[in-house]
Automatic annotation (TrEMBL):
Protein name, as recorded: Carboxypeptidase
Coiled-coil boundaries: none
Signal sequence interval, chain numbering: 1-22
Compartment annotation: Secreted
Keywords: Carboxypeptidase, Hydrolase, Protease, Secreted, Signal
A Pfam family matched in the record: Peptidase_S10
Length: 444
């Protein structure tokens, strides 16, 4: 669909008739079209399939067959990876208007292929044959996702050996370890050439993380001592319900706690203390419900897009408070893991992640915990964040960003993911433990 505004304008003024039809300009210029999009059948659930969009690397530095492939998973549970695609890290985004795609200066597909998957089935444009087929635990999530990834690799010749990095945010703090654990444990010689896992502002070890809210907001000056006690009480309710394995009720209690936190602080959103309004995922909803969008992405026109599926959220509610920390412990012995958090997030931020890292059963933990935290500077010399790395584990605190790190800090987030994948910059510094004397030398 080519639109030539001047010609159309000219014709309509010349003839002054309605017979010249002036189409609105397309939302998707050719440059904004994904390389591929469509559906990946999920064999363990016949009739179900996952929707995906794929963007090939813009400036790959290696033959495509060796070029890393990043997979992005949204959280929720139940939210669509199209949020990541069109509002966070994809090459074209809607940031202020649902009908205007803007090129992203920090797109994550500069050097790497980028695959967004609506996971699990029932989310976004993905199709669940029935509610019974929607995964109820992380094992099922991983099985389905693995089937979809294998399908994608098989559909695309030349993808067999591409290094795969699974990335995601928020509730994908469950999905990312789950798929990593499944591949490394059960399909170590399978089709997915897994090379690393990255989690942004993740929920991974909920009981530990939930117990940091009160103290975090208290020492940030957002609540007083009395309110802190009240929050602690709300936290204990959820923890007690977990202890008695009332998973659904425990998840509800966590929601209560977060509502209370929102009420007390009065913030526009707990996802970013600096924002005056919530993140605009509504723009993604409006964009994806346009007829043109469905047409170019290969989606049936009759489908209605929701940013988050209540049905999937309901099915996975039993899973919310369950920890996958043991999966991170297993995977970090076998592949590299990046945990990054925007520092302005009050839901799954830095403090809440550090708290569970400290409790990991990992032979290298002591070394990690005593490793130096380095200041990360951006191109202008400002503080972009902080990087701590030992062996296979990297932790990054991203300055000036909330829950949606790539939305708030597009270029910095891109620099981070590229540095981590390629082992460059602060991620390339040798893990040499400073001895007492070298520490002394440094201080001279
Ligand atoms: C939060 O505030 C709303 C509106 O004032 C109120 O209806 C709700 O009960 C409060 N929730 C909690 C958990 O305090
Ligand atoms: C789109 O979905 C409708 C309703 O499910 C169905 O009747 C129709 O055949 C589908 N169209 C295509 C092109 O698949
Ligand atoms: C770190 O991951 C690599 C693979 O990238 C693996 O071979 C190695 O055993 C892991 N190292 C440790 C100390 O766990």
């Amino acid at each position: 669909m080519e639109y030539v505004p001047t010609l159309c304008f000219l014709l309509s003024t010349l003839f002054l008739t309605a017979s010249v039809e002036c189409q609105p300009p397309p939302i998707f210029p050719d440059a904004a079209l994904p390389t591929k999009s469509g559906y990946l059948p999920v064999k363990p659930a016949p009739g179900s399939s996952m929707f995906y969009t794929f963007y090939e690397a813009q400036n790959p530095t290696s033959p495509l067959a060796d070029t890393p492939l990043l997979v992005w998973l949204q959280g929720g549970p139940g939210c669509s990876s199209m949020i990541g695609n069109f509002y966070e890290l994809g090459p074209w985004r809607v940031l202020s208007s649902a009908t205007e795609l803007e090129s992203n200066p920090g797109a994550w597909n500069r050097l790497f292929g980028l695959l967004f998957v609506d996971n699990p089935i029932g989310v976004g444009f993905s199709i669940a044959a029935s509610k019974q087929d929607i995964p109820r635990n992380q094992r099922q999530v991983a099985e389905h996702l693995h089937a979809a990834l294998v399908e994608f690799i098989e559909q695309n010749p030349g993808f067999e050996h591409r290094p795969v990095y699974i990335t995601g945010e928020s509730y994908a703090g469950k999905y990312v370890p789950a798929i990593g654990y499944y591949i490394l444990k059960e399909k170590p010689n399978g089709k997915v050439n897994l090379k690393g896992l990255a989690i942004g502002n993740g929920l991974t070890d909920p009981v530990t993380q939930l117990q940091t809210h009160a103290v975090n907001v208290y020492y940030s000056g957002l609540v007083n001592a009395k309110q802190r006690k009240e929050l602690e009480k709300a936290q204990e309710i959820s923890v007690a319900l977990v202890k008695s394995q009332k998973w659904r009720e425990a998840a509800d209690a966590r929601t209560e706690l977060l509502t209370l936190l929102g009420n007390m602080t009065g913030l526009a959103t707990l996802y970013n203390t600096a924002r005056a309004i919530p993140y605009r995922t509504d723009l993604v909803v409006d964009l994806l419900n346009q007829r043109e969008t469905k047409l170019v992405l290969g989606v049936n026109e009759t489908m209605r897009f929701e940013d988050c599926s209540d049905e999937v959220e309901d099915v996975l509610r039993e899973d919310v408070m369950k920890s996958v920390k043991f999966m991170v412990e297993y995977t970090v012995e076998r592949t590299k893991v990046l945990l990054y958090q925007g520092m302005l997030d009050l839901r799954d931020g830095v403090v809440s992640t550090e708290e569970w890292i400290k409790t990991m059963k990992w032979s290298e933990l002591e070394m990690f915990l005593t490793a130096e935290r380095r200041v990360w500077k951006d191109a202008d010399g400002g503080v972009a964040g902080y990087v701590q790395k030992w062996g296979n584990l990297s932790h990054v605190a991203v300055a000036g960003a909330g829950h949606f790190v790539p939305t708030d800090k597009d270029v910095n987030s891109r620099d981070m993911i590229e540095g981590w994948v390629l082992g460059k910059g602060l991620f390339g510094i040798e893990d040499v433990k400073p001895t007492i004397s070298s520490r002394f030398m440094e201080s001279l």
